[in-house]
Design brief:
Blueprint (H helix, E strand, L loop, with lengths): L5 E3 L9 E10 L9 E8 L11 E2 L11 E3 L6 E6 L9 E8 L1 H4 L7 E9 L5 E6 L10 E10 L2 E11 L2 H9 L4
Antiparallel strand pairs: 1-11, 2-6, 2-8, 3-4, 3-7, 5-6, 7-10, 8-9, 10-11
Length: 180
């Protein structure tokens, strides 16, 4: 997929009830602390904002309140399971992001991160689609929306984004109205 493109998930796969989001990357070796990419998922309402602060899934809160989204295995660097049938009706989209952990080496960027991807697979881990993030101007980017699952016509679709933030988690929090 390319940035901005959409793909039907449930229309093309009518029996699809659960998906696995696989996120991966390579980091350029460093003599100092390594850039530490950290994935997170935000469950959003029709206004595009987080349903609540509890609807943020990341390393410190590894499952959504109702259990429809949870961090899982590590075949990729990170895997997130999404039970599409259990996602609350109040959730219109599920944004998938990665940020560079500022606690590891200060306000780092994606400049040392290569080959970032997001793939969507079925329950048996058969890849349905893959988005390879284009490596454009990553030296100023420290948070990024990789893509989003969203409701459409009674089913689910995926949109590849690759939208970067230069002001990191502060910008993410403002866009999604989160308290981070």
């Amino acid at each position: 997929m390319v940035a901005g493109s959409n793909a039907a998930l449930t229309a093309e796969n009518p029996d699809l009830g659960k998906v696995l989001l696989g996120i991966g990357w390579d980091t350029v070796p460093s003599r100092g602390p390594q850039s530490e990419p950290v994935p997170m998922v935000i469950m959003c309402g029709p206004d595009g904002r987080a349903v609540s602060d509890e609807h943020l899934v990341f390393f410190n809160q590894i499952a959504s309140p109702e259990g429809s989204i949870a961090f899982a295995g590590t075949e990729d660097q990170e895997q997130i399971d999404v039970d599409l049938n259990r996602v609350p009706d109040s959730v219109s989209k599920i944004a998938v992001l990665v940020y560079i952990d500022p606690d590891v080496r200060g306000p780092g960027t994606f400049g040392a991160v290569r080959n970032t991807y997001l793939r969507v697979a079925d329950e048996e881990n058969r890849e349905l689609l893959r988005f390879d993030v284009p490596p454009v101007n990553m030296d100023k980017i420290n948070a990024m929306i990789l893509g989003e699952l969203y409701r459409h016509g009674g089913g689910w679709k995926f949109r590849a984004l690759g939208q970067g933030y230069e002001t990191g988690l502060a910008a993410v929090a403002a866009d999604f109205r989160l308290k981070l």
